[in-house]
Amino acid sequence: MKKTKENIEDKIKLVRSVNKNVRCGTRKLNPILKAIVGKKVDIAIRNLSFSDKRITKDIKKTLSSAVANAENNFQYDIDRLIVKEAYCGKQVVMRRFRPRAKGRASPIKKPYSNLTIILSEIKKVEKHGTKS
């Protein structure tokens, strides 16, 4: 059982890129990441370029890094790469305090996140002639 799993993983190589300490909360990152999963890389980069969210620049940089990893390390064709997975996780939370009325202070939480993007290559699908 173990050998067949290794053979499958040898055929399908995944390329990943991780960006740690992204200055954004996971609640703001998740909708953007869900929008690019399953799309071709060039379409995902185009969509991120035209988004007006601040954090899309960091996501685009991480996606470009994953594409460069695929090209240099595995010699993949860039035109056949798709975003297989994109997810984020919590990192540290920076705490600051803002002065309020009557000598009080209220906390401000500034969350950080980890960003992971996994790419895979589309296999060439051979179309067989069908009888009609």
Topology, element by element:
Elements: H1 2-11, E1 15-22, H2 26-36, H3 41-49, H4 56-74, E2 81-99, E3 105-121
Antiparallel strand pairs: 1-3, 2-3
Helix pairs in contact: 3-4
Task: Give a quick rundown of the structure.
The chain is an alpha+beta fold and 132 residues long. It has helices at 2-11, 26-36, 41-49, 56-74, and strands at residues 15-22, 81-99, 105-121.
Describe it for me?
The chain has one domain: Ribosomal Protein L22, Chain A, CATH 3.90.470.10. Helix content is 37%, strand content 33%. The protein has 4 helices and 3 strands. The chain has helices at residues 2-11, 26-36, 41-49, 56-74, and strands spanning 15-22, 81-99, 105-121.
User: Would you tell me which CATH topology applies?
Assistant: Ribosomal Protein L22, Chain A
Shape: elongated
Low-confidence stretches: none
Work out the count of structural domains.
1
Average pLDDT taken over every residue: 88
Number of helices: 4
The CATH architecture is: Alpha-Beta Complex
Q: Write the CATH homologous superfamily.
A: Ribosomal protein L22/L17
Strand content: 25-35%
List the keywords.
132 residues; alpha+beta; Ribosomal Protein L22, Chain A; three-stranded antiparallel β-sheet; 4 helices; 37% helix; elongated
